[in-house]
Amino acid sequence: MSWLPPLALGFWGVVLLQAWASGRLNLLLRADFHGLVLGAGLALLLLALASLRWRPQRRSRLIPWTALLMLWAALVVLATPPRPSLSTLAANRSASDLGASPLSFLSPPEQRSLTDWVRLLRNQPDPALYGGEPVRVSGFVLAVPGQAPELARLLVRCCLADATPVGLAVRWPPGRPWPQPDQWLKVSGVMGVEQHQGAARSVLLAQQLIQIPEPARPLEP
Amino acid sequence: MAGIAFNSAQGATVWAVFQGLLLEALPFLLIGVSIATLGRAWDPRGRWLQRLPNHPLLGPLSGAALGFALPACECGNVPVARRLLAVGAPLGSALGFLFAAPVLNPIVLLATWAAFPDRPWLLLLRPFGSLLIALVLAALLQLLPEAALLSQDLLAERRLNQPLASASLLERRGGQLGAAAPPPMALAPPPPWAELLDHGLREFLELGALLLMGSAIAALLQTLIPRDVFLSLGQAPTLSVLSLMLLALVVSVCSSVDAFLALGFADQVTPGALLAFLLLGPVIDLKSLSLFGRLFQPRAILLVVAGVSLTVLLIGQWLNLVLL
């Protein structure tokens, strides 16, 4: 069984390389870390091959179950790609603090992303400033208990573990059921004003909904 | 805790968060194991490392300073600290490195500055708090005899590399009195590179297996427990510190990025709680605690958890008293 540890190591190299090549990392990690995963995958694969080719005279003692567990885990991770429910993930997280980013404020309204709009509304929350401005944004449907669902994106600083949502209140077209959580939509409409918990707030008055596939990079930095 | 029932959407989310944590941590673990293996090649008997100071204050401080030379987050730190302990480096230095280096390194300090340029007190108190924790934990753990502190395998390796005067012949043979003797280990000339590779591979797999378990627990808890449970106590001075300490334990993100995560809720919590989050996470979280199993006996791990929790709570409380 001396081939088992190098095999387990090699399979983890394959897992990292496959995650990089298949775009799986786009769903799990911020782009800054992708190069690191690629490098580690290559290194693990080369080290495994070297270890299989050149056997030491005296082998290190290995806790018996570790190589088997690592090999099994690598195969399971390889065979089972992540399909998280972004809405479930976001429901457990507080809304993100976006900080200030004045440059994005200069974009014309119809070119602002969902994140730009949320940032703008938090920095200058007076709804009267934006009434009637055209909006074209995309995001996933985030269920909000007791209220209409929002359109949201997830911001990630490191990996999915620290993802935090930014959501935009939407008044969905009347006469139609609300969209399902986790659906990806492109929403066109205008910004309006509504009363919410005794105060005025901006709301996207949706006029057109187009269902879109999940983007290649669903997480935003 | 309403809605804690497990459904398929939550199961799929746990699986994705688990993969995210693991794929982010594995490269850092590889870096740590590589540093430890290169150190083994360069100085197989650890003669340079044995010269680190053995002073109760200077020992941990010198270990902490090594973080500037070997910048790694907590996952990469464990194999390096294990190497320090295995070659017989003074206990204080190795523990100082283990507990302080995840914060006292240029990458983490720069990240903290980038995330909180408007909170100069945080830039000062994070490294100093981290040093204080390392000093307290090093002093506390050194109250235990090495046989009660270090894991059996590590103790046996350490005994073989320590100067003759530091352990009796019986301890040197068996790791501790009355224990079964480990298989013979060579003291011999620097190992050839195939053996180095084999040793590094073993180290990576053993730590990786522990990392699997830590990541699984962290993914499960942080998907099932709403983060608002931790943040809802944001403005209560003591409870906010305690709840953010729990959050740091569960979230298990690397020390190099935890400041950016904290930025997301910094305005919702007390200053003491914010500092507590940034101090506790680099020392213990569910991921690193699982890795500590390769270094310490269970009783010592409990001592680490108790020591760091109490120290961080006191620091957080003190800061809240000063700033609130």
Descriptive report:
The complex is a heterodimer of chains A (221) and B (324). Chain A is α/β, with parallel strands linked by helices and 221 residues long. Chain A has two domains: 80 residues, no CATH class; 133 residues, Nucleic acid-binding proteins (OB fold (Dihydrolipoamide Acetyltransferase, E2P)). In chain A, 34% of the residues lie in helices and 23% in strands. Chain A has six helices and seven strands. The mean pLDDT of chain A is 87. Helix content of chain B is 71%, strand content 0%. Chain B starts with 7 loop residues before the first helix and ends with a helix. The model of chain B has no long low-confidence stretch (mean pLDDT 84).
How is this fold's topology laid out?
The complex is a heterodimer of chains A (221) and B (324).
Chain A: H1 4-22, H2 25-28, H3 34-53, H4 64-79, H5 86-91, H6 114-123, E1 134-142, E2 150-155, E3 164-168, E4 170-171, E5 184-196, E6 199-211, E7 219-220
Helix pairs in contact in A: 1-3, 1-4
Chain B: H1 8-42, H2 47-50, H3 58-69, H4 74-86, H5 91-100, H6 106-115, H7 120-141, H8 146-149, H9 152-161, H10 169-174, H11 193-224, H12 227-231, H13 237-251, H14 258-263, H15 271-283, H16 286-292, H17 298-323
Helix pairs in contact in B: 1-4, 1-11, 3-5, 4-5, 5-7, 7-17, 11-16, 13-15, 13-17, 15-17
Overall radius of gyration of chain B: 20 Å
Count of all domains of chain A:
2
Poorly predicted tracts of residues of chain B: none
In terms of quaternary structure, the protein is: heterodimer
> How much β-strand is present in the residues of chain B?
under 5%
CA-based gyration radius of chain A = 23 Å
What percent strand of chain A?
Answer: 15-25%
CATH architecture of the largest domain in chain A: Beta Barrel
Task: Provide the succession of SSEs of chain A.
Answer: HHHHHHEEEEEEE
Mean pLDDT of chain A: 87
E-strand count of chain A: 7
Order of helices and strands of chain B: HHHHHHHHHHHHHHHHH
DSSP helical segment count of chain A: 6
Structural class of chain B: mainly alpha
Largest sheet of chain B: none
CATH names the topology of the largest domain in chain A as OB fold (Dihydrolipoamide Acetyltransferase, E2P)
Q: Which chains have the largest interface? A: A-B, 64 and 59 residues
As residue ranges, the low-confidence spans of chain A are none
Helix content of chain A: 25-40%
